[in-house]
Amino acid sequence: MTAEMNFDEILCHIGGFGRFQKTLYVWICLPQIFLAFHMLVSVFTGAAPPHLCGSTRPSAAAPAFSNFSLVTVPDGRPELSCTFSLNHSDSVTTETTNRQPTGRCQGGWDYSTETFKSTVVTEWDLVCDSATMNNVGSSLYMFGLLVGAAVFGSLADKYGRRTIILVNLATQAVFGVGAAFAPNFYIYTAFRFMVGTSVSGVIINAFVLGTEWTGSKHRMLAGIITDYFFGVGYILLAGVAYLIRDWRKLQLTISAPGFLFIFYIWVLPKSARWLMANDRKEEAWELIQKAAHVNGQPLAKDLEMCKGYENTEKTEVKKKHSCIDLLRTPKMRKQSLIVFYLWFVNVLVYYGLSLNISDFGMNIYLTQMVFGLVEMPARTITLFTLNRSRKISQLAFLAVGGTACLLTVFIPSDLSVIKTVLAIIGKFGITASLSIIYVYSAEVFPTVVRQNGIGIGSMCARTGGVLAPMMYLLRNISPHAPMVLCGVCPLLGSALTLLLPETANKPLPDTIEDIEGTRLSEEDGGVQPIICETQQHQEKLTNNSNTSVSCQGS
Question: What is the pTM for the complete model shown?
């Protein structure tokens, strides 16, 4: 061991993915299931069942639930009877299709209980003039994710990953349960916003904590494992929602178990890498010794390693760059803007499809389950395609997703099975593309601005998430507008990907000069060779550290 040893080299000696790291990933992956619940529960709690204005009933005693089919438009969406009111008890006949608007609904709403016992829509009548509020509520939840990413990312650098994870798990449980007892839609939305911030805080910092303890050879695989558990939550939500049709009980069911994570206070370790970077070397060394012991590779106490690590970190910190550097030079600007767009469009379409599965005409619970199942092969296939070509993989999956979404526009509403199959193919393509952009963007940005680039990319992604629920307001213009957007935007992204460089099996750029090609001819070694076998993948997960990695001991 040398005196100058960074933390990745330490991991090479104590075990990069031994029993200690595997146990850590159990604790990291369990919350992912509940994160998926919170992210997608609005599919069920915010659903709008078929409904009729109370004054359209054949009789006061019998809400004509059997006649909901009479108030639908050709694409299967409810006409809602928003601008008319029938006055005759015998009006629910063939005249219904020829009626003229005579005013707003005055008799209250009757909702079908065939699929849902209750939702926030049925409880607070979020239909017709108030329908937009439901979309705004979903967007505010997504905005919470954006705020959480910005706030808790910086707080974690100050107070540590473990502390922020624990705070956010508690916040998620408290406000998630609170939302189940919300007295009105505004308080419900505020609580959901807080849940959104906590979800983002857990996702980011659990991801970072795991990768800061994991050796370079296993970081991509470890990252995919967390994605799988999110997919498990995606699938399980369909079953839970099927069994619990009341929105308050469903919200309570997915939130209350969050209090069980209180035991993380005793089992979740701190990040030794973060402790070292913050001059808490003794505490870090105790954790390193514990990890080495658990992995069966105990080390003698050698504080010179920690001192060497500290010096390495401080040397790197002195080299500061800003977000402006991403746009200062021509090639860097072109690549940055394309990558930012790819982040945006992937998340826009991913949640655009995930949160609006009722539009495809199939059973909502079955569609939710299949959409969750497709996440598994979509994420798995990227493990094989990425090693061949980042560029081709990205543009191919974007093209598949965009084309499938666009084709749904041409399918008649009565062929709901074909429409749903195409939507599933679109979800497959976009899910795979979303997995790839994490790796690809980390390799496109040079080391000196990689953290800034991925940070802004993440903000663009969250912006896409905020706009995804609002996208379906375009149905007021055309019923096909949302899916046209879900098709055209990825296809444009696929075309733009052609302008990006291939990064598979290539050395990582360290400086902006490497991107612009002005330094490579002047200095041999402007980009350092990569020793670790999967170094290309590790930068996806080490965007909190700009240190180079040398794994001679692995």
Answer: 0.75
